[in-house]
Design brief:
Blueprint: H1 4-16, H2 20-31, E1 39-42, E2 60-63
Antiparallel strand pairs: 1-2
Length: about 60
């Protein structure tokens, strides 16, 4: 199973876009580029460079 037909329709929509900005928005929506999630590690003691990750307590993770 391929996604060739979907990719051809997407390429056509981008080609017919009225502007470069609109074409970029179509691509970002199709590719999911606007749905990126970045994990932010929030260590309690970021300056403790001597502590091995294996022995360190679990770090909280926040998403943005």
């Amino acid at each position: 199973m391929t996604r060739r037909a979907e990719q051809i329709r997407l390429a056509g929509a981008i080609e017919r876009a009225p502007s470069d900005e609109a074409a970029g928005q179509i691509w970002e929506t199709a590719a999911g580029a606007l749905l990126d999630r970045h994990l932010l590690l929030v260590p309690e003691s970021a300056d403790d460079h001597g502590l091995c990750w294996f022995d360190a307590p679990a770090a909280g993770i926040g998403a943005s």
